[in-house]
């Protein structure tokens, strides 16, 4: 190593070499010559690599190429990235491996790490080059550039090469609408800055001011949890709608505010819902696709459509999300919707209702259909839900007392002045009911339930009961409480009906004064004394009754002591009574037997008499029939009569020729004695007597047809009566025979026969 060649090389390439420090190099004389040849080979290889422009990039990094000079000159005005071989930052990256042709005198390679977005996080991109933003834009439009890994496609458009006639979608400089989801990305950091939760990926060419801006954006996003996806559905603590002093946990919902796109029209406060249907070609999937949202006509500002339970990867530069509790309508209430959003609707309340408009769903105003009990993802920026109780609720006009609903917290007892100048305070409770279908009209008329109570019911009830007190004395208020309640309920029900509410009941408390020992207490004391006197009178009456009861008790006790004797005597009495009843029953039976025998004997005699009468009647009829036949055989009844007379005279014991004959001169004065005898007065009498007895009618001619008809009629009637009596029986089983009907006298040939 101490050769002249080494000294020559050392003196020419080492400026500080001289003979004085030659001794230092002399120590290298012991190094083998092969090592120097190896070093020389390495140096020659390095020189060769430089001549080839050889560059190496690690696999976990990328190389941003900066071209220092180029025959084509610098990039165009307004551009930062070189797309056509100009000097400047090149669009293409160098990935891991060995690359040639990048000479150090022409290219500078910036080796930067790959962009890594952690699992479940979001990365935000800022583009340093591209088309300027339009006046209505705050973020650059989404371009298909492989998640910002294709810088050339971002700048010139992905469709430029495929269809030159179609205007490509060009990337815009500034903050981007598109985000990076979890993963590793090879991004050209000369064109894009990427902000993640724990790092800002950039090429340090913008200075500290630019870096501070990026850090401030990172801080703002971190404060808004912008690097995390939006999670909706967690519990949020909120005041209880029925008891504001108590806090409850309620499921959350999301209110979205979009910061990009066209502004709202004049008069609008909420952007309408667009692209919310899944089948819509511009469905933006709950604001996760900003371009689809804007294509569908989305506007910047607070959105009407809300986010419900789920996880959403939303660009917080494009839209921020506010978590609010869902609206709960408790059981026993309905929610009346007062909408601040929607088209101008038609009034459904009618021409006579002049308290505002009631509209249909989706229209601005008080909506006609209320919400029933349940949980609703209602946008409270687009409207308000006013709870209206539909169950009966009590309002207390009692100082210092209120219900949990607190509608009556400002109500006090009603001060009255009675007709007799008492000044009591009247505690009052009223049970009220609101029909759920009429709840919108109540809200339309009053605004809310509390205003209904304080502005209408309170003055109305106070005035009514003051009028009642003016017409009654204090004693009337105390004693006629029930009737006053019924009158008040009827009157208030009529008045409440005009306000679409119902008065269920009115409950009046005890009137009292504010200070103790007032006039009312004196009146009540007098009433107490009066009532005490009445109670004492009733007590005395009860004592009298008690004394009588005591007397009866003592009598009962004495009776109990003599119970054995009394029992024996009662038994004897019962025995005697039973024996007497037995004798009486026996006598009654004997009397009944006698009566039965007498009735039987009477019936027997009646039957025998009737039978005998029937026999005699039959015999008489038979004899009459025979006699009639005899008379008919003589042709002339007078002949039969002479024969009967002759028979009777023959059987007579009197002499036919009188022993003495009395003669009297005739009326004619005849001197003939024989003639005188026949025509004298005695003879005349005898002739008349004989004629009367014999039935001769000297003036009639003999004819027996009438007598024959009479006889047949009598016989026929008798037979019919006998048969009817035998068939039907008479009274009490004894057959009765009706008497023959009376027949007028029949005159036949001078013979008169009377029949009964």
How many helices? The count is 16
How far is the N terminus from the C terminus?
A: 207 Å
Portion in helices: 25-40%
pLDDT < 50 stretches: 666-679, 698-703, 730-756
Q: What amount of the residues lies in strands? A: 15-25%
Tell me, briefly, the overall form: elongated
Oligomer: single chain
How many β-strand stretches?
32
If you average the pLDDT, what whole number results? 81
Radius of gyration: 73 Å
Sheet of most strands: 5 strands, mixed
Secondary structural class: alpha+beta
Please characterize this protein's 3D structure.
The structure is a single chain. The chain has 756 residues and is α+β, with helices and mostly antiparallel strands. The chain has 16 helices and 32 strands. The strands form eleven sheets. Strands 20, 21, 22, 23 and 25 form a five-stranded mixed sheet that branches. It has a four-stranded mixed sheet with strand order 3-4-2-6, with no helix packed on it. Strands 9-8-11-12 form a four-stranded antiparallel sheet, with helices on one face. Helix 12 (563-633) packs antiparallel against helix 16 (705-728). It is elongated.
